């Protein structure tokens, strides 16, 4: 897909802005939709709009899906093993709250697209579920819930042995609604899409079928950015930079990161899996394939990030 031009004859610049599900909650208040956090997220999106981009917002769903899964599991509801349905439900839940907050701030309509992401039924992730989701359970609780067909993995948490549900996390191959999102951005519309990494589907005999999996939100965002020919992939998190040796005495902020160096660091395990590593991988893939701009920075410092004053900026090389 190739970009068009606006009414002034200028090329339409497109950006994918990826928000984490944690960006919308305040754990201290026990709220998955803290009004103040939603305002900060909306302000971040507005900053990108003011910079002249046509924007597709993506978002995580970890805390929200975890809460929903807990309710389904403890009630014995078989939907607990239909993660495609769980993701779809949280896309609507979060999409509504986020789009309304964005609209109230920007006075610009935000359109929520229920987004499916194609994966391969032959992806090795289906044979080895490793992605933890939801809350921690005791051994007794986990054994009881296994009767629903749920896989659990043991974790050591502050000296206690607890269990957490683990699910397959296959590679995103295609954004099914990608062409629609592309056309909407070309019209200057503001889109909220790919919530929770997208609803995972496979293609069997020419028909789509939902599968029990969770797609990484950042990798799905990179795939979306690539498919719509975005000029910018902006991943917003809780820190201003990607750090080498994070939270250690010798931690170092990475202001610029070449894709080859990022690959080496990913392979050596410098970045924490399930946290910053998929964000680095997403930016690396996008820049490798497109040569465009990718930035990781904090939700509160988007303007400085776009100006090159803070954040980790990826470049091809």
TrEMBL record:
Residues annotated as domain Aspartate/glutamate/uridylate kinase: 14-298
One example GO MF annotation: carbamate kinase activity
GO aspect biological process, one term: L-arginine deiminase pathway
Gene3D superfamilies, per the entry: Acetylglutamate kinase-like
Database matches in InterPro entries: AceGlu_kinase-like_sf, Asp/Glu/Uridylate_kinase, Carb_kinase
Classification via CDD domains: AAK_CK
A Pfam family reported for this protein in Swiss-Prot or TrEMBL: AA_kinase
GO cellular component, one term: cytosol
Keywords: Kinase, Transferase
Keyword Kinase set for record: yes
Highest taxon, organism lineage: Archaea
Family, similarity comment: Belongs to the carbamate kinase family.
UniProt protein name: Carbamate kinase
């Amino acid at each position: 897909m190739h970009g068009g031009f606006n009414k002034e004859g200028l090329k339409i610049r497109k950006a994918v802005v990826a928000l984490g599900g944690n960006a919308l909650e305040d754990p201290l208040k026990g709220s998955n939709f803290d009004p103040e956090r939603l305002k900060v997220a909306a302000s971040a999106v507005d900053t990108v709009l003011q910079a002249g981009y046509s924007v597709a917002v993506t978002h995580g769903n970890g805390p929200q899906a975890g809460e929903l899964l807990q309710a389904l599991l403890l009630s014995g509801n078989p939907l607990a093993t239909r993660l495609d349905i769980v993701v779809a439900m949280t896309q609507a839940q979060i999409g509504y709250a986020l789009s309304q907050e964005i609209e109230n701030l920007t006075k610009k309509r935000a359109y929520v697209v229920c987004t499916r992401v194609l994966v391969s039924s032959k992806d090795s992730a289906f044979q080895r579920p490793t992605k933890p989701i939801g809350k921690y359970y005791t051994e007794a609780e986990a054994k009881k819930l296994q009767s629903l067909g749920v896989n659990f993995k043991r974790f050591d948490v502050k000296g206690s042995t607890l269990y957490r549900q683990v699910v397959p996390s296959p590679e995103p191959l295609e954004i099914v609604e990608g062409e629609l999102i592309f056309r909407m951005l070309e019209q200057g519309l503001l889109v909220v899409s790919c919530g929770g990494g997208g609803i995972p589907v496979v293609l069997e005999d020419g028909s789509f079928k939902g599968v029990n999996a969770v797609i990484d939100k950042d990798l799905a965002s990179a795939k979306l950015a690539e498919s719509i020919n975005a000029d910018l992939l902006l991943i917003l998190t809780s820190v201003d930079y990607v750090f080498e040796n994070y939270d250690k005495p010798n931690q170092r902020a990475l202001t610029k990161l070449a894709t080859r160096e990022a690959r080496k660091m990913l392979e050596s395990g410098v970045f924490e899996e399930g946290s910053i590593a998929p964000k680095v991988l997403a930016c690396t893939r996008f820049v490798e394939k497109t040569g465009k701009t990718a930035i990781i920075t904090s939700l509160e410092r988007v303007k400085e990030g776009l100006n090159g004053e803070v954040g980790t900026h990826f470049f091809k090389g």
